[in-house]
Amino acid sequence: MYQWDCGLACACMVLRYLGLDDRSVYTTDLEELQCGESIWTIDLAYLMRKHGIQVELATITVGVDKSYAKKSFYQDTFNKDEKRIENLFAEASSSNITVTNRSVKIEEIIQHISQGNLVISLVDWSYLHCVWCDGLVSIFISLIHIKTCAIYSDILAIFEK
User: Fold this and answer.
1) N or C: which end of the chain has fewer CB within 10 A?
2) Run of H or E including 118
3) Phi and psi for 120 in degrees, rounded to 5?
4) Which residue in 59, 38, 33, 55 sits closest to 119, CA to CA?
5) Host H or E run for residue 33
6) Which residue has the higher pLDDT, 161 or 20?
7) Among the listed residues 103, 120, 155, 145, the one whose alpha carbon sits nearest the alpha carbon of residue 7
8) Max Cα–Cα distance, the chain, nearest Å
9) Is the pLDDT of residue 7 over 60?
10) Rounded to whole angstroms, how far apart are CA atoms 64 and 11?
11) Does this model's pTM top 0.90?
12) Contact between 85 and 63 (Cβ < 8 Å)
């Protein structure tokens, strides 16, 4: 089984938690998304919808952040991805995906989880600091323990089917 993307791993965890089959995530689902190995948060939103899950994507960048062209993970495919991602955002509403251009406060995440919903919290690890080290303590560390996965800087709210 492929395990190269944490966003997809989070999607699999959500599907399993909801009692849904996740075996197609790394195969036919990826083929349908036509994203190769370049997974963006909007891809995860479409993946959840494909499995009948209601989602809301809250992001501070609707579309493509041009600075990602310099990030090693996106470098090789950025030019190809840019148009695909812009199209996915443009078509999100017609695909029953709610996209909001905003940051999300921790209180909102906690409230969402306390109502029995799930969250995939994609956070740039370079902004987090070790709880056990001399660095700052991040509340996101505790969220990982409560059904959350962290990687970049978007919030994908998961509502049960």
Assistant:
1) N
2) strand 118-122
3) -105, 110
4) 55
5) helix 30-33
6) 20
7) 120
8) 47
9) yes
10) 21
11) no
12) yes
For the chain, which residues make up each domain, given as ranges? 6-159
Asked if pLDDT for residue 144 goes beyond 70, the answer is no
Contact by Cβ (8 Å): 79, 38: no
For the chain, give the number of residues.
161
Amino acid at 129: H
| Angle, in degrees to the nearest 10, between helices 6-17 and 41-50 | 30
Banded pLDDT at 154 (limits 50, 70, 90): low
Contact between 68 and 74 under an 8 Å Cβ cutoff? The reply is yes
Confidence of residue 147 (pLDDT cuts 50, 70, 90): very low
Asked if residues 88 and 134 have their Cβ atoms less than 8 Å apart, the reply is no
Residue closest to 153 by CA, chosen among 123, 121, 108, 120 = 123
